[in-house]
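User: Before I run my own analysis I want an independent prediction to cross-check against. Here's the chain; please return only the structure tokens and, at the end, one sentence I can use as a sanity check.
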Amino acid sequence: MESLISLLTTLKNRIDGLTAQLDITGKIQRIHQLEERSGAADFWNDPESAQKIMQEISRLKEEVGRWNGLTQRINDALELAQFDDRSLLDDLTNEVNALTEIVDRMALQALLSGPYDRDNAILAIHAGAGGTDSQDWAQMLERMYLRWAEENGYKVEILERSEGEEAGIKSVMMSVKGEYAYGYLQSEQGVHRLVRLSPFDASNRRHTSFAKVELWPDIQGQLDIEINEKDLRIDTYRAGGAGGQHVQKNDTAVRITHIPTGIVVQCQNQRSQMQNRERALQILKARLFEMERKKQEAQLAALKGENINAEWGNQIRSYVLHPYQLVKDHRTDYEVGNTSAVLDGRLNDLMDSYLRAKVALKSAT
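Assistant: Structure tokens:
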């Protein structure tokens, strides 16, 4: 029983440290302040502002409740363990194992403290130079992220997909919906490199293929970004799937080009041209927002004299299938020998190593 008490005490200390790091006490005070405002007689005179406040209250209560509930659960288990009742040993052992897993997961989520880390995400994959091999690699990455989403309880909606000429895909854009989707997937932004014996080479030679992954927070309705209609070129075309499946008879798919920046957004999954246009505009706003945010971060880094390493954004990860098996993240030097597991969506360890390295990098600057 002493070993269980020791483990529970360690878990309690970890949770106390995490709740302090996340300022749960400050968030409780924030809830009280917002609830006082919501009780004012004129609170609903501005429905949009009132709705945002109510959403913030709900989000904060959910976060505080989750951490307080876990703290209480650990305290209850610790109290039972201190009774030293041997008949409770098996139940307490199972509870400690379950709590350890929960604390590990929530400790990782505690690293996701950015303003948009809890939001849904828009993820895009683009085949690089290399023809069919790179297009096949882009499709392998698409499958990898779909499997990761499925295993971790995220819902995925394909917004736009362009098939390759012989195999694979030229590009795909998907919406990943669920808590912390953007926070976890931020580890995937950049160029992914594949080394393998090409199945498309008659001589079975080794090829290197590249694909680029882009990511934006999908914060619908939260972006105050004005877009001048004169800056947009809007084209419509007929949407279709592989093998002629689900081919639309009308030009329902929409392509929007933002002329000042050259950003191109396409959407073809909605039922009508109007719905596709609206969704494409939402994605364009998200991309413009992310572009401006990164620009501001770069300006701040220049003012602070920070050194931004090129590897933190360009070629981020290599997947070697021949002559040996290895997945290596070049930003963290984290390696995985089981390439099949990674390509089947087992990405959490790689994401974890990135998030921890990112926090350490920020702390050092």
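Sanity check: The first strand starts at residue 121 and ends at 127.
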